[in-house]
Amino acid sequence: MNDMRYEAPDTIDGAVALLAGGRGEVRALAGGTDLLVQLRAEMIAPELVVDLKRIPELRSIAAEDGGFRVGAAVSGAELGEHPGVKALWPGVVEAVELIGSTQIQGRASLGGNLCNASPAADSVPAMIAARAVARVAGPAGTREVPVEEIAIGPGKTSLAKGEIVVSVLLPARPARSGDAYLRFIPRTEMDIAVVGAGVSLTLDESGVCSAARVALGAVAALAMLVPEAAAALVGTTLDEAALERLAAAASGACRPIDDKRGTKEYRIKVAGVLARRAALIAAERAGRS
Amino acid sequence: MAKIHVSTTINGDAVEFLCEPEETLLDVLRDGLGLTGSKEGCSSGDCGACSVLLDGRLVCACLVMGAELGGCEVETIEAMAHGDVLHPLQSKFIEHAALQCGVCTPGILVAAKALLDKNPDPSETEVRYWLAGNLCRCTGYDKIVRAVLDAAADMRGS
User: Fold this and answer.
1) FRET pair for A40, CA 20 to 30 Å: which of A90, A104, A270, B5?
2) CATH number for the domain harbouring residue A38
3) Nearest Cα residue to A96 out of A115, A83, A82, A77
C-alpha cells in the first residue's frame, strides 16, 4: 500500500495551498481519465492527489465579454451540450468531443487535456487556433496564459508548483468567423491522433479571408501554431492556389516522429491535407458561399 | 494511512463505505460492496466493461476514485432489472443472442440504456458511435446493435 493522500477542497485557494504545500510529488485531479491510468500503470506515485471538481469555478461555463469562460474540469459531455459554446466555437467543441469514448466524455476535461500535455491532445490545436487563454492560479496569484504556452514538452507543463489551470477563455469573435478541427486516425473512433489540424478564420464582406490561425497537433513535441500556414490564407478567397500554399506551409512546419500510428513522411503529408480540409470547413461556417 | 469515509447513493440506496485513496469506484463496487455486475476488463478506460452512471453520466468505474463519491449518485447494472422483470434491453439481448461470454454485457447494457434515456430513437450509426467505448470480443457487435435498435423500437411503442 502506498501512502497517497486524497483531498477535495472547495476553493481555488484551498487547492493551491494543498498543492503548493505537498512535500513530494503532487497531482491535480480533474476528470482523471489520464491520471488514473498513470497511477494504475505506476508511471506516477504522487504523495497527494487534489481533486479539483468540488471547486465551482472549475465546473461552470459562463458568458464573458462575448465569449465563454469554460471551467477547467468541465467534462466533454457538458461542453458538447452547451449550445452557446457550440455555436461560437464549433471547432473547439468538435475537437473535445473526439477525445475517447462516451464514457471518457463523461469525465475528460478541457483543462485536463491541456495539462496532460500530450502532443496529440485533440482539444489543444483547436484551442490554439481559437486564441484561447488559460487562467492559471497559484501561490503568487493569478495569471493569464495563452494555451500554447502551457505545454513545454510531452507530459510537461510551464505550471509552477501549486499552480492550476482554473478555466479557459474562448474569446469573442468577429462576424463572419468560423473554426474547425479535424484529426486523422486509422479507424473511425477511439484512437489517438496521427495528425490533428485546427483552423480559425474570419472573412470580410466580399469573402476574402481577413484573419486566420492554423494549429497542428501530433506532428511535433508540442501542438503548435503555424503562422506561415495562416498567412497563406489571409488576403485570399481560399482559392486553389491559396489552399496549396496552406497545405505546403502546414506540411513544412511538421517535425514528427515515426511510431506505430504513422511514419514521419505520412504525418507530413496528412498535415497539409487536414489543414486544407479544416480551412474549407471553417470558411463554410464563417458563411462562405 | 487512515481509510477515507465516504457517504454516497448507489442504486437509490444510501451507502457508506471506507476506502483507500488508490481504490477505484470499480474496486469499491466489486470488492467492498459485493456488486460484481460491473466487470473489470482493462482497468484503463478502454473496454467499457465497468460502465456505470455517475450523477447521470456514463463513465468507466475504473477511472473514478472511490474517494470522489461523497454525495454522488451511482447507478450500476444491478439496478436495471426490477426483481425478476428484465429491462427491455436485457430481454432483447437474450432474444437476439447479443452475448456469448457475457463479460462485456453489463457495461453494454448500462451504456445502451444511457443512450436510449437520452435519445429514444437512435440511428444505427448513433448506436455504433455511442457504444464505441464498449469492446466485445465475441459477437462482432452486429447482434448487439440489432438488439439495441429493437429494444428502442419496442420502448417507443409501449
Assistant:
1) B5
2) 3.30.43
3) A77
Domain count, chain A: 3
Distance (Å, rounded) from C-alpha B148 to C-alpha B152? 6
* Distance from C-alpha of A42 to C-alpha of A108, rounded to nearest angstrom: 20
Name the amino acid, one letter, at B94.
I
Q: Are A12 and A63 members of one domain?
A: no
The maximal CA–CA distance of chain A, rounded, in angstroms, is 66
**Rounded to 5 degrees, what are φ and ψ at B101?**
-75, -30
Q: What is the pLDDT of residue A1?
A: 44
User: Which 73-102 residues of chain B touch chain A by CB within 8 A?
Assistant: none
B108 Cβ under 8 Å from any chain A Cβ: no
**B9, B71: one domain:** yes
CATH of the domain at A237: 3.30.390.50
Residue contact A189–B132, C-beta within 8 A: yes
Residue A37 is nearest to which of B44, B67, B133, comparing CB atoms?
B44
Give the domain CATH number at A84.
Answer: 3.30.465.10
B15: Cα within 13 Å, side-chain hemisphere? 21
How confident is residue A2, by pLDDT bands cut at 50, 70 and 90? low
Domain enclosing residue B63, as ranges: 4-77
Chain A: residue nearest B57 by CA? A106
Could you read off the pLDDT of B91-148 as tens digits, one per residue? 999 999 999 999 999 999 999 999 999 999 999 999 999 999 999 999 999 999 999 9
- Residue indicated by cell numbers 486544407: A276
B-chain residue closest to A76, CA distance: B57
Closest CA to B79 of B52, B41, B42: B52
Nearest CA-CA distance, residue B48 and chain A, Å:
7
ipTM at complex level = 0.96
Using CA atoms of B125, B50, A101, A26 in order, give the dihedral in degrees to the nearest 10.
170
In a domain, B149, yes or no: yes
The average pLDDT across A91-116 equals 97
Query: Do A65 and A147 belong to one domain?
Result: yes
